[in-house]
Amino acid sequence: MKTINKYIKNSLLILSANSLWLSGFYSGETMAASAVSQASIPVGPVAGSQAAKWRDHWLLVSEKSGLTLVDNELKQLVPGQFEYLDTWGDIALTYDMQVDQVQGIKLDINNMQRLALLPKRQIQIDWLCLQPRAADNNLYAWIGNEEGQAEQWLLMSNQQWQPQLLRSLSVAMGALTCTVDSNTEQLYVVENQHGVWQYPAAPNSPAEGKLVLQQNDNAFTDISQFGGKVLLSDSTGQIFNLSGKRLFTPKLDHDEVESFAIDGSQVTYLVDADKRYYQAQWAFSPEPKSLQDVIAEIPTQVESAIADRAGDTMDDPAIWVHPTNPSQSRILGTNKRWGLLSFDMQGQQVQQLAAGRVNNVDIRQRVKLGGQYRDIAVASNRDRNSLSIFEIDAQGHLTQLVEQATKLTDIYGLCLYQPDEGSLYAFANDKSGVISQLALTWDKHHLKAEQVQQFKVPTQPEGCVADDQTQRLFVGEENAGIWLFDLSGSQPQGEMILAAGGPLVADIEGLDIYHQTHNHSYLVVSSQGNDSYVLYDAQPPFDFVGRFRIGVNGQQGHDGSAETDGLAVTSSAVGAGVWSEGMLVVQDGRNRLPDEHQNFKWVPWRMVQQQLALPSKP
């Protein structure tokens, strides 16, 4: 290194026009300075790939010289054969060609640290980019290849480097390079035939994409960011915004630009013809980008065992609270392909009942039926437009009772209602909007269901919850909003109390009530359209309280939840410590970390309280 540094110092050339400089760095070789325009000059090592800014310095990677820092002299930070580069904070991500693995580096000018390599992949690595997230303070990365194969990785959680495969994603064939707009959580991929593609990049977002900038026989070769703006470069080094408007044209002697990076006063290019870096001055001052509303995330604390098959299988949960040992409580969940499942508080499946295509399930405990107190679960059964009924013993074991018919023709959602200790009703709704109220009475060794009245909402409902204390029924009309029915009278009249819009994004799915005190409750709603959960006061005027998402827990290897159908809450203790004030359990429509079949996720209610600054349960 002493010989190299001596050469670097001797080869430093100060250019007066723009205070630009030229230096050469070959691994063990010398480089003769060539005449270049003052607008663009060669810098750094040969056999380069990508540049990135770290603090006040440029970092460059090379197949010969590893990771190099550009200052008044070039400094080799980490030796190796590196290709591709992105940085965030004091973390750099590159590809180690010697071992064919993605390498993280903790950047410290005095103590560079190679972090644990990502496991060797089955796909070739042709590009990579980092994705910091404000919602969970985790660091993610995307890696991919020209065959259209991509992977999203969780790299850091709670400041700990712990690489875990989150999911795989198919992107456009011919994908060349990527960047992530962390403000909007969108992945942008440049593809060699048609232009620029956009993909949702949040950990639990759908696997979908769209072409946002079309250019046949695409000439864009790289994509980058500065000041919150996504920018593109073509093979001549011209820079464009995401609308295709040209912003800058450098003076380059070559027209084979492969990559570029910007820091606000300079652009650093890598030219494919000689695999060398060039710099040009450009005072780019983008307009401030408006910040997106960040929905805070609560990390998943427990996740259930997964469904036994792929596709849309799990739907709706319910919580059974153990009468004497809260930690032995059970979570029921519908597998809408074939039956009802039961899980312990650690998420392990403990029972399965092949009842048919049950969709929604609800529970009432200590209902006096047939002269004794019973715990009852009821589910809507789409095989026969019926009610599947289960009795739950003191240890949480379910026994199926006689199935009961309904008058519905396309049964869907369901919830229970217990106005007093000896009365039990089911509200079952139909895709047509019809809601049937059925009285459940004990008849010898089973429950008998008999319709007592019907009412209606305009279009398809599903989620519903009855507040036994206030004798109110809340019904989610999926695409429209939430209806309220007063059950205290003989003919319930419905009114729309919360229309879809603002924080409540259709589809409106699961509904439940958390009873904070006897006089104060929260209505909890699955806002499926933006993968969030919304709280309202459950008393008029039903004010908005707050919203949140359930997110990644890297330490435990749990992903968050998305595309949630059903949910359930309880204010009863389901364990000690954080579980003493109850819990929230939700269906996860896109189970990841890594890609798996659907399951359920749950969190202690205390974490919801802390996130939304709610008062503790007295």
What does this structure look like?
With 618 residues, the chain is mostly beta strands. The chain is 3% helix and 50% strand. It has two helices and 52 strands. Strands 27-49-48-47-46 form a five-stranded mixed sheet, covered by helices on one side.
Relative helix content: under 10%
Distance between the termini: 67 Å
Coarse shape: elongated
Low-confidence stretches: 1-38
Number of strands: 52
The largest pleated sheet is described as:
5 strands, mixed
Structural class: mainly beta
Q: How many individual helices?
A: 2
Mean pLDDT across all amino acids: 90
As laid out across the biggest beta sheet, the strand order is 27-49-48-47-46
Strand content: over 45%
**What is Rg?**
30 Å
Helices, strands, pairings?
Blueprint: H1 2-10, E1 13-15, E2 20-22, E3 41-43, E4 48-54, E5 57-62, E6 66-70, E7 74-78, E8 82-88, E9 91-96, E10 101-106, E11 113-114, E12 127-132, E13 139-144, E14 149-157, E15 160-170, E16 175-181, E17 186-191, E18 195-200, E19 210-214, E20 220-226, E21 229-234, E22 239-241, E23 246-248, E24 257-262, E25 266-271, E26 276-281, E27 297-299, E28 302-303, E29 314-320, E30 330-335, E31 339-343, E32 349-353, E33 358-369, E34 372-381, E35 386-392, E36 398-400, E37 404-405, E38 411-417, E39 425-430, E40 434-443, E41 446-456, E42 461-467, E43 472-477, E44 481-486, E45 494-499, E46 508-515, E47 521-527, E48 532-537, E49 544-551, E50 567-570, E51 583-588, E52 599-604, H2 605-612
Parallel strand pairs: 27-49
Antiparallel strand pairs: 1-2, 3-26, 4-5, 5-6, 6-7, 8-9, 9-10, 10-11, 12-13, 13-14, 14-15, 16-17, 17-18, 18-19, 20-21, 21-22, 22-23, 24-25, 25-26, 28-52, 29-30, 30-31, 31-32, 33-34, 34-35, 35-36, 35-37, 38-39, 39-40, 40-41, 42-43, 43-44, 44-45, 46-47, 47-48, 48-49, 50-51, 51-52
